[in-house]
Structures are given as structure tokens and as C-alpha cells.
Amino acid sequence: MPLQWRLHVLGARLSELLGGRRIDFQEVDLFRLQGRQREVAVDALVSGAPLPLLVHGDRIVCAGAFEVDEIATAVTESASR
Q1: DSSP string, 32-49
Q2: Contact 18/72 with Cβ under 8 angstroms?
Q3: What is the DSSP letter of 30?
Q4: Separation between Cα atoms, residue 9 and residue 17, nearest integer Å
Q5: Which of 42, 68, 71, 74 is found 20 to 30 A from 23 (Cα to Cα)?
């Protein structure tokens, strides 16, 4: 299944879990990331983290697979800050 379709399905599932909150994913090449997001992504890859990576804010939320519960927790935590 193409990544964009998987992200669409994942976004819909997360939206349900988070009470209808809009969830947008962006597929971004590593070299288009900036600042702290780029640093944490490069550090994760150097440390051997598998692709794909999901970066939210300035941390890696998932590596190798998209975990709905982990993403929902990260979104909820960042919203409460």
C-alpha cells in the first residue's frame, strides 16, 4: 500500500481516537527537515533506527512502523503543553 494511503488511514484512525481532532501527516525527505527535527532524525538513523521514522515536535515517536497508540499519546502530550 502506498505511504500516502497508509498515512490517510492512520490519520483517520487517530482522529477517531482523539475525538475528531484533525490529524495531518507530511511525508518529508530527511534533508527538508530543519533544526532539532533534523538532528533527532539523523541521530536516530545513525543509531540504527529503521525507516520509516515519525517525528513529532522534536522527538522520534515511531521507528520502523507506525504505532497508533504511541502517536496518539505524543499528540495528546504536546497539546497539553
Answers
A1: G--HHHHHHHHHHHHTTP
A2: yes
A3: G
A4: 13
A5: 42
